[in-house]
Amino acid sequence: MLEQRYFRDILGQFTTGVVLVTTQTPRGLTGMAFNSFTSVSLNPPLVALCAAHTSSTWPHIRAAGEFAVSILGEGQEELCKTFSTHGAERFAGHAWERTHAGHPVPADTLGWLDCRIETIYQAGDHELVVAEAVEGAVTDSGGPLVFHGGRITALPA
Ligand SMILES: Cc1cc2nc3c(=O)[nH]c(=O)nc-3n(C[C@H](O)[C@H](O)[C@H](O)COP(=O)(O)O)c2cc1C
């Protein structure tokens, strides 16, 4: 069996983008950073992400049943850190806009999707969440924020 640290090191060789998953709940705004986001199906439009059982934020998003995905751009490292730090005040100190469904997205996001949770599969220590994308927009043409080798960075110029 693969040793966990080595498994993570191998996966770190695979470069991903970073998204924020945010939602409006009856108790206020909530959200967290994900790199396990991926497209799944074009027709119907489906996306997926994996949420750790240890996350204290994910159960609130799951209970809401819907969320916005915002794709982070270069220069948004701090926003990513805030949205991955347990207990951080996540929505202070940044400009936010609302999606059609009313979820908050950073004003400078590269693009966003409004999603409705369709199916959740239990998968080891994570939940594999499949959601339908119901609305969305491309909002900026800048470069992406990328996650590689455990580092949050921009693409080399
Ligand atoms: C670049 C990056 C990618 C992340 N991707 C995921 C992910 O795909 N799934 C996940 O459950 N947590 C992921 N996290 C960690 C969560 O964002 C973090 O554990 C969570 O926000 C902690 O706060 P919470 O306990 O309030 O949920 C990622 C963190 C970073 C910095």
From TrEMBL:
Keywords: Monooxygenase, Oxidoreductase. One of its GO terms (molecular function) is riboflavin reductase (NADPH) activity. InterPro entries: Flavin_Rdtase-like_dom, NADH-dep_flavin_reductase, Split_barrel_FMN-bd. Pfam families: Flavin_Reduct (PF01613). The keyword Cell cycle does not apply. Residues 11-154 form the Flavin reductase like domain. SUPFAM superfamilies: FMN-binding split barrel. Belongs to the non-flavoprotein flavin reductase family. This is Flavin reductase. The lineage of its organism: Bacteria, Bacillati, Actinomycetota, Actinomycetes, Actinopolysporales.
